[in-house]
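User: Here's a chain of 114 residues. Predict its fold as tokens.
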Amino acid sequence: MENMRDRDYLSQLELMVLLAILRIRENAYGMSLAREIEQHSGRELALASIYSALERLEERGLVRSERGAPTPERGGKARTPFDVTAAGLRALRSAHATFSRMSAGLKELKPVAS
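Assistant: Prediction complete.
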């Protein structure tokens, strides 16, 4: 069986995280990504699942992060903003192209038999 760490495809969550980072740009940190994904997908995600996806994406070189400066409103904690790398953008474009090819010509998305 294939090792999940060696896969080259993106999960639906990873795709949503990459798209959310691109939508937000400078303020792309965990909580803002969760809000963006919920607003545009209607899905409420656990913050832990978003950070887990970010960790996987960063390990694969698809996103990068840089620890920000501590802020008083966060009790001295620093935010960690994320940015999509060139490799991440290529992976996102590839996934979009694949999805477009697979769905091309479909008139309806419903089962053949009920």
